[in-house]
Amino acid sequence: MFSVMCELHYMRVQSKHTLLTVTLGAGLALGFALLAGCQMPTAYKPAAEYPSFPPLRHAVKAVFGENGNDHGGDLPGRGMQFVKAFHDLGIDLTRIEFKWAIAEPQRGTYDWSEHDRLIGFLNQRGIEPMLMLYCAPTWAMRGTPEDEQLFIERGEQNLHSVVWPRREYLPDFERFCETAARRYRGRARLFEFWNEPDGMAGPTVYHDRSGKAVDVRYGGDAKEYTLWLRHMYAAVKRGNPDAVVAAGSLCVHDTRFIEAMYAAGCRDRCDAISLHPYAGDGINVEWIRQCRAVMTRHGDWAKPVWLSEFGWNLGGEYDEKGGRWPDSAIRQAQIITSTAPVIQSLPYITHAFWFTLNDWNTGQTGIDPVGTHRFGLLDMSGRRRPAFAALRDAALKTPVLPRTAEMPLPQVVPPAGPIDLASESHLKLTLTCCDPSPFFCPDRSDVRPQPGSLAFDAPGGTGGPHAAPVTWSSSGRGRPDGKVAWTAFDARADVIVPIGPAAGARLLPNTYEAVASFGYGPQTHFPVTLPALARFADRLPKVDGGFEDWPPDWSIRDGQMKAEFAWTKAHLFFACAVRDPHHQQPHQGKDIWKGDCIQIAFDPLRDAVRGSQYDVNDSEYALALTQAGPVIWRFICPPDGYVGHAVDAQVAVQRADDETHYELAIPWAEVGVSDPAPGRLVGVAIAACDWQDQERTVHRFGDGIIGQKQPYRFASVRLVQNSSR
């Protein structure tokens, strides 16, 4: 089996002779493959037992309707032209929009006529539809009916249709999905959920205190996406147990969203992952591989990848006078020819939906001033571009053979959610190992797994790394010598490690970086937090910018910042001092983040997942001393909240010598906590921003507030009755 070596390094830590405590639920897992050159017998990796995938299936997205839509199209005319093109290409699969809004325009009343029309048309002509399910009815959308006006003013009217539904309509959504899957059983087996939720789809609309829509945040809420996915998947499977559901439809070329999907529980709620790997001269192969690495790290090495959308807006128009296509159209054909074998070479890609069969006009309604999109193999008149022949040849040359995928290196899966230390006594990790033995690790008596070890590292030469022996145990098949043979799927091992002395400095509340690895596998980084303690305030602190009500020894310190929290049943109190000889804050309102200020964000349920941005319960504020006086401004709020001046909060900011003093009393209701009590954890991130001309220095408690919004990296505050640990 494996010789396992784990390392944990904590950055920005000062430690004394103590131990750390934390439990990582079933959050660490292994992806498995062999390192090139690793000395392991060939018999341990039988190629026949590597994950096998079916032959690559080519598909083409056709635009059957007007303005980029699939509904309302001229099927007897243009539709038949498209059918002939499909047959000539040798392709019998297409991706079509399947909108909840069209099927259930009024709650409880279904109208399947438009979906019946297109799906029936395709079925009768030997073309299989993949149903891309999205688009909530107006009655189920978040926000107000007037929100669409903001999208119209921005020239993005079409994006209003993909605002997320309200959660109270989950039962309606499930009923729609189950009914649709049952209705089209035998006529449509492939499904995909939503379109590009990490990009412009799934926008969150923000309102001011009067209820007017004033801003939109696009994409990023992977937790919300996964919640609806899980309900969609279960409902579709009830309606059609043979259905195949793809998740993701991702378009932003990083791995944060897919990481968050897995952390939120998508692994057992989808049958494939779909990606949109657009690139200028091909496809983004590196991103595809990175997404695949996330999948395998979570034990999903046998799950296929669909490329559900990719193409090139290069078609150009035919030169009737010169009798030739422009160079851009020829280049489009060349890209198709060179890209097809690249897709074939990635064995886990089972479906490739080329975008698109035909051009379409989006300039008619003013939504898109660009006018005609020229992604098509056919131009607006139906003339076949060189790309048509290129795709036909590529499809004909695709081998009709199953393909075998490589296995990944062993790797620790990062925990799904934040890790908060329960005390300063020891570090406890519960490791979960996805079983590699069915692939290349048969149970052999001569395989001797070795015990792992952990290391603790204090930076700055304050004691160096502190290795400690680790005892492995397992709920799977153990060995008499106490070592673990990872032979049971999802076997678990508890690891307890003491932290050695390091120059006598105490460990301060904050978020520290951990690095875990299995010796020859890749490193996995994740945060571990020592919470700050918020004492119960027997006497209410005065919010006046003075610190007479606060203890002299503040527990939160970073650079020139120190801070402290306190609480009552009604409010959370915050005090912060920043040493700054030159105060610079010329801004007002939503722009105060551009000057000296405190940015503070809350994850009230401490329920962030790795990779996610702000979700439906998170909020973010800024406190500043402006020329008009102290200000608190809310930038991010729950969907039913408001952005702008947080009038229910009390704030005081004043200058004292070369320091700026901030004090805040904010109602728990504003933060999103309904039941404050001793022991409660609240996710918090603080960024003290000190601007000097155009340069900004940031002092932090936690991370994930400046730049990319990552509440998974927040620090935390634990409510206590008194300040003793």
Secondary structure elements and their pairing?
Blueprint: E1 30-31, E2 52-53, E3 57-61, H1 75-89, E4 93-99, H2 100-103, H3 113-124, E5 128-134, H4 148-153, H5 170-183, E6 190-193, E7 204-207, E8 213-217, H6 222-239, E9 244-250, H7 256-263, E10 272-275, E11 278-279, E12 282-283, H8 285-297, E13 305-310, H9 327-345, E14 349-355, E15 360-361, E16 372-373, H10 386-397, E17 403-404, E18 411-412, E19 419-420, E20 427-433, H11 437-440, E21 453-458, E22 464-469, E23 491-497, E24 510-516, E25 524-530, E26 532-536, E27 556-558, E28 561-567, E29 571-579, E30 597-603, E31 619-626, E32 629-636, E33 644-645, E34 650-656, E35 659-667, H12 668-671, E36 681-692, E37 695-701, E38 715-720
Parallel strand pairs: 3-14, 4-5, 5-6, 6-9, 9-10, 10-13, 13-14, 19-25, 26-28, 26-38
Antiparallel strand pairs: 1-18, 2-17, 7-8, 11-12, 15-16, 20-23, 21-22, 24-25, 27-28, 28-29, 29-35, 30-31, 30-36, 31-32, 32-33, 34-35, 36-37, 36-38
Helix pairs in contact: 5-6, 6-7, 9-10
Describe the protein's architecture and organization.
With 725 residues, the chain is α/β, with parallel strands linked by helices. The chain has 3 domains: 30-34 and 408-530; 53-404, Glycosidases (TIM Barrel), CATH 3.20.20; 532-720, Immunoglobulin-like, CATH 2.60.40.1190. It has 12 helices and 38 strands. Strands 26, 27, 28, 29, 30, 31, 32, 33, 34, 35, 36, 37 and 38 form a 13-stranded mixed beta sheet that branches. An 8-stranded parallel beta sheet has the order 3-14-13-10-9-6-5-4. Helix 5 packs across helix 6 (222-239), helix 6 packs across helix 7 and helix 9 (327-345) packs parallel to helix 10 (386-397). The radius of gyration is 28 Å and the shape is elongated.
